[in-house]
Design brief:
four-stranded antiparallel β-sheet, alpha/beta
């Protein structure tokens, strides 16, 4: 919303106790507003706080060497088979204490917050034991209060088969279903459960077991689907009414139809596409034609998307995948909120929602996706307070 340049209507926003109590065109605002404490934003553009609905920002160690390997032509799947990739980060994260994880992860979250993120999803998945997955999720919960960011935590124990379960993936899935998910639900450490459905990770049948366990414990369902190949994971996720399926480079027409019918959000992650130098793009035109809501996430992680910038992901989504700037903004606000199952609580300037919003000295919201590294929020308001 903006009065800048005279092209958009001027709105009045009212806030009490951290929530919007008024969102209306200025000419329809009640006269009583003039008796309240007011601030004139002088025609600035206002957007909801940005929502990064897919990150892995809690980890220890780094994978710079693997990035160098990929530049020399070694495939990501081959690095994973050699014990690198996710398992490399697992070893470093297991060795780190909770306080060490908090210390190294906080700057990543602060970087996202500085460019306007007010809500972030943080996945586990670099622990792969009960104790280490719980450790990661506790850190995720604590980070939000330190950076003035809403945190939605997701259990991703089905991220990779840990080395101690090599050749025994089904047994590890049993551990996830019978021990890890119940403990996480009991301690209320996660809002959702995610899986990596891929030939180098978990089969459709194994993911189905994890989804069923998540459903039994009233946790939302998400999925890393069709990133490197088409196993049909998105169809499975749609059957379980998943809130989102993410990546989707190899999603087929049947998968598009399935998630359209279930109302599942397609989360696009152009950062991983860029860093892995992929050539197969998500079927954006088909998703658009089917009316599937498309969100955009940073996918911040140590190996395949080491970028702490949702704004850059917006630009990439337009440049690499063909989203319009309006679609990109929707993708990091209302559609991203829906990908977290929080569409009634986040992502819009609406009465009753938290007063999380951004004030920009720009003329058009299209600038947020068309430019990168230039405009920063003039002010970031989190739950009604300037941060």
């Amino acid at each position: 919303m903006s009065g800048a340049g005279g092209s958009d209507p001027t709105y009045a926003l009212g806030e009490t106790n951290g929530r919007f109590t008024l969102v209306a065109p200025m000419d329809k605002a009640p006269e009583s507003i003039r008796a309240c404490k007011t601030t004139d934003l002088r025609g600035a553009l206002v957007t909801p706080g940005l929502v990064d609905c897919h990150t892995h920002l809690v980890w220890a160690g780094n994978r710079v060497g693997e990035i160098e390997q990929r530049r020399e032509g070694v495939a990501y799947s081959e690095i994973a088979k050699q014990g690198g990739g996710i398992l490399s980060t697992v070893r470093a994260t297991r060795a780190a204490s909770e306080s060490q994880l908090l210390e190294v992860s906080l700057p990543r979250l602060q970087a996202l917050a500085a460019e306007g993120v007010t809500t972030v999803e943080i996945k586990s998945g670099y622990g792969l034991t009960l104790a280490d997955e719980l450790k990661m999720l506790r850190v995720a919960r604590r980070l939000g209060s330190l950076a003035n960011v809403n945190v939605s935590a997701t259990l991703l124990a089905a991220h990779a088969v840990p080395s101690e379960y090599a050749g025994r993936a089904d047994e590890y899935v049993t551990l996830i279903c019978e021990e890890i998910i119940p403990a996480v639900a009991r301690e209320k450490l996660a809002d959702a459960v995610d899986v990596f459905c891929e030939s180098i990770a978990f089969s459709v049948a194994q993911c189905e077991r994890v989804f069923a366990a998540a459903q039994r414990h009233d946790l939302l369902i998400k999925g890393h689907m069709e990133q490197l190949s088409n196993l049909g994971g998105s169809r499975l996720a749609a059957h379980f009414n998943a809130v989102s399926v993410d990546h989707l480079e190899h999603l087929d027409a049947i998968g598009v139809e399935a998630i359209a019918e279930s109302g599942t959000v397609a989360v696009l992650l152009p950062g991983a596409f860029y860093f892995l130098r992929e050539t197969q793009k998500p079927p954006v035109a088909a998703l658009r034609a089917a009316g599937v809501p498309m969100a955009v996430g940073s996918d911040l992680n140590p190996g395949t998307a080491p970028l702490a910038s949702l704004r850059l992901a917006m630009n990439m989504a337009c440049t690499l995948f063909g989203l319009t700037p309006t679609e990109a903004l929707d993708g990091v606000t209302r559609h991203a909120a829906r990908a977290l199952g929080s569409q009634d609580q986040l992502g819009e300037l609406a009465v009753g929602q938290p007063a999380d919003f951004l004030i920009w000295d720009i003329e058009s919201s299209a600038e947020l996706a068309c430019e990168f590294g230039v405009s920063k929020p003039r002010q970031r308001i989190f739950k009604g307070e300037i941060t």
